[in-house]
Specification:
The complex is a heterodimer of chains A (about 210) and B (about 450).
Chain A lengths: L26 E3 L14 H12 L3 E2 L5 E3 L6 H11 L3 E9 L17 E9 L4 E9 L5 E3 L8 H12 L2 E3 L39
Parallel strand pairs in A: 3-6, 7-8
Antiparallel strand pairs in A: 2-3, 4-5, 5-6
Chain B lengths: L2 H8 L15 H8 L10 H9 L2 H8 L10 E5 L11 E7 L2 E8 L7 H7 L2 H8 L7 H16 L5 H29 L3 H22 L8 E2 L2 E2 L7 H24 L2 H7 L7 H6 L5 H5 L6 H4 L12 E3 L5 H25 L17 H4 L3 H12 L7 E9 L2 E9 L5 E7 L1 H5 L2 H6 L4 H11 L3 H5 L1
Antiparallel strand pairs in B: 1-2, 2-3, 4-5, 7-8, 8-9
Classes of the chains: A alpha/beta (about 210), B mainly alpha (about 450).
């Protein structure tokens, strides 16, 4: 290990927290820079709570992750507010087809619809996760894209489009991502006929 | 129709095909340069001018001017390419040797595992998810089982928790060793490939002894683990630790100071913390940018808050940082395993709840109830209360999440896996942009995508 030279960048980050051996550019970290409420101000977690209180009223329970039920129209603005409030990362974006569970109950005045887009936002500085669930009706399966707030939503929204047929308006590249371009139907919908669709191959005439 | 046209039409990719830059939308161009990242977006026209060149140049190119220098070329790398670790396809627009844009095209390995997950009972579910990220199967099983248990509301006996942690960390070691091997191969260090596979075999040998299989174990199950650790497991694990630790030092000596390797890695494939956060990148790539985010530390699951280890971060977000992080994470994992060896509690390795875990084999011969339970367990499965749960763990590649919706039956109503490789692939266009074609292989390798998980 003695042969390990210093970095070509010319800096030495080898401080007391360095792991044994290896190279000096990697250092051990135990704290997150932004995470403190020590200077008399509110902690990031409390700030986020305020954002939640001020933007949405349909909050389910107190268990973590905090679950929010924004309306479809205000969804983008809620996510933007959460982003401003300290949710640095879009963790996950997916959808559920509630075709067989249409009578489910939701808190507040939210009317259950067939599709539900589920978004997980992560605040790294507060080490906290927020779950947003948005109802998307069957007759108009469109919803705003989060691309302008979180660029990482690109692939996830394409996957939801591919699997559920939910269109994200203003998405830069709303094409299929996992299935072939010319695939018919949306596989993860509950009314998608499993085993009834012949396997499709590009350029090969299908039996239908 | 000429041969060229015929070839072009028969290999047409339709709307997925990447357009030349002159035809791409300004928004898309901006994304690739990272210019649309919040806080520093220049006007769209500026980006367009900077990227495409002034209008005169574009016009000249359109009129078939002999200016070869301004011509770009779109080439395909993969899906059948030895360095793509599976079937990743990259479309790249090149200006000479410089990469202007990249688009990963995926889906070649899509087998509808999320749909399959809706058809399988919770008992069977682990066999499905374990095949996603086939280099760290135990982590997949772990996240699925943690999610199921969150819905069930069962409390695990401590030994089950610690066995899971042991297996998860051993799996991290084997996965990173595998990465060291393939990364070495991608960079032309073929001896590293042999070494990495050799040490990984030690870990897989222990997995085989414990679970019965080298991969796709189905060892971690809802309610605990399938079997207790084999007799003499302490010696085996210590042997692995000593060996891997010694060999890691050898790799360090072989690679870290190697001028050729450093030349190929340092300053290549750079991504900033801001870009990584915006693109939802997690795992070693995010940490290489200096963001100390590791779910084991920041949002502890299992008993990670009871062991002592460091989260490793880099400084520059380049390929070398990611190499160094993975190399040293092997050492950190070994450190955790040493503590697990000391602290492993005794007791049950699964919940003693007959509705969740099958009865022991010996009981079936003497007890009618045990036989009934066993039969019901494997024909009907167990019912999970209605509800939704999201659980995330730190897999060797980043945040591995599982979202399950239960309708009260024995099968998940919806099972979604947030694969770290799938999301992390979005970093590839940013990392490659402006780099050399020869570095594309090294950079793609440093992202460490597992295509089974990308496509699911």
């Amino acid at each position: 290990m003695s042969s390990v030279t210093t970095t070509f960048h010319g800096t030495s980050d080898a401080d007391s927290g360095s792991p044994s051996g290896g190279n000096s550019r990697v250092k051990a970290a135990t704290t997150f820079d932004n995470a403190d409420g020590t200077d008399g101000t509110k902690s990031r977690s409390e700030q986020l709570d305020e954002v939640v209180q001020s933007t949405i009223h349909n909050v389910a329970g107190t268990a973590r992750p905090t679950i929010l039920f924004p309306e479809r129209d205000s969804y983008l603005s809620v996510v933007s507010a959460m982003h401003e409030g300290g949710c640095e990362m879009l963790e996950d974006l997916t959808a559920v087809d509630y075709l067989r569970l249409s009578g489910r109950e939701l808190p507040g005045q939210i009317k259950p619809e067939r599709f539900e887009v589920v978004v997980h936002l992560l605040s790294l500085s507060a080490a906290r996760r927020f779950e947003l669930r948005v109802q998307v009706p069957e007759e108009d399966p469109t919803i705003d894209t989060l691309y302008d707030v979180y660029h990482g939503s690109e692939a996830m929204e394409r996957e939801v489009f591919d699997m559920f047929g939910i269109v994200f308006t203003n998405h830069p590249d709303m094409t299929r991502i996992l299935m072939p371009d010319d695939w018919e139907g949306y596989p993860l919908r509950k009314d998608y006929g499993v085993n009834r669709v012949p396997v499709q191959f590009r350029e090969a005439p299908g039996p239908r | 129709m000429s041969d060229i046209d015929l070839l072009a039409s028969s290999t047409s990719e339709g709307a997925q095909e990447m357009q030349s830059r002159s035809q791409a939308s300004v928004k898309e161009l901006g994304r690739e340069t990272g210019a649309v990242l919040r806080g520093k977006s220049p006007a769209p026209e500026e980006i367009a001018t900077a990227l495409v060149g002034s209008e005169d140049q574009t016009l000249a190119a359109e009129q078939g001017d002999e200016d070869i220098e301004s011509e770009t070329m779109i080439i395909n790398m993969g899906p059948q390419h030895p360095s793509t670790h599976g079937v990743l396809r990259l479309m790249m627009e090149l200006d000479g040797e410089t990469i202007l844009r990249t688009k990963p095209v995926i889906g070649y390995l899509h087998t509808g595992m999320e749909k399959t997950g809706e058809e399988l009972m919770y008992v069977q579910g682990a066999t499905n998810v374990t095949r996603m990220d086939y280099l760290s199967p135990l982590n997949n099983e772990l996240v699925f089982c943690l999610c199921t248990e969150a819905l069930l509301g069962v409390e695990l006996p401590p030994r089950a928790v610690w066995i899971r942690m042991l297996m998860s960390e051993l799996n991290r070691v084997s996965s990173h060793l595998m990465w060291m091997a393939t990364n070495g191969m991608d960079l032309g260090s073929t001896s590293m490939m042999i070494y990495g596979f050799r040490e990984r075999e030690l870990v897989l040998g222990f997995f085989e002894k414990t679970t019965g299989l080298r991969m796709n174990h189905n060892y971690i199950r809802p309610g605990g683990v399938a079997a207790d650790l084999p007799d003499g497991w302490e010696e085996d694990v210590e042997f692995i630790c000593d060996n891997v630790m010694k060999r890691t030092d050898e790799y360090d000596e072989l690679l870290t100071g190697q001028p050729i390797l450093r030349e190929r890695l340092e300053g290549v494939g750079v991504i900033t913390a801001e870009e990584a956060l915006s693109l939802s990148i997690t795992g070693p790539i995010l940490r290489s940018t200096g963001v100390p985010w590791d779910l084991r530390k920041t949002m502890p699951y299992l008993a990670y808050d009871e062991v002592d280890f460091d989260v490793l971060v880099g400084t520059y977000g380049d390929n070398f940082d990611r190499y160094a992080i993975r190399l040293n994470e092997i050492r950190e994992s070994i450190r955790i395993i040493h503590q697990i060896l000391e602290k492993m509690p005794s007791g049950d390795y699964r919940v003693q709840d007959r509705k969740v875990t099958p009865p022991p084999r010996a009981r079936i011969d003497e007890s009618m109830e045990a036989l009934i339970h066993h039969f019901k367990m494997f024909t009907e499965g167990f019912r999970v209360p209605e509800g939704e749960a999201y659980v995330a763990i730190e897999s060797p590649r980043g945040e591995l999440g599982c979202y399950i919706v239960s309708d009260g039956s024995a099968r998940p109503y919806r099972m979604h896996i947030r694969g770290p490789s799938f999301v992390n692939l979005q970093a590839v266009p940013v990392m490659l942009q402006g780099g050399l074609l020869a570095d594309a292989v090294a950079t793609t390798s440093s992202v460490d995508p597992v295509m089974g998980e990308v496509d699911r």
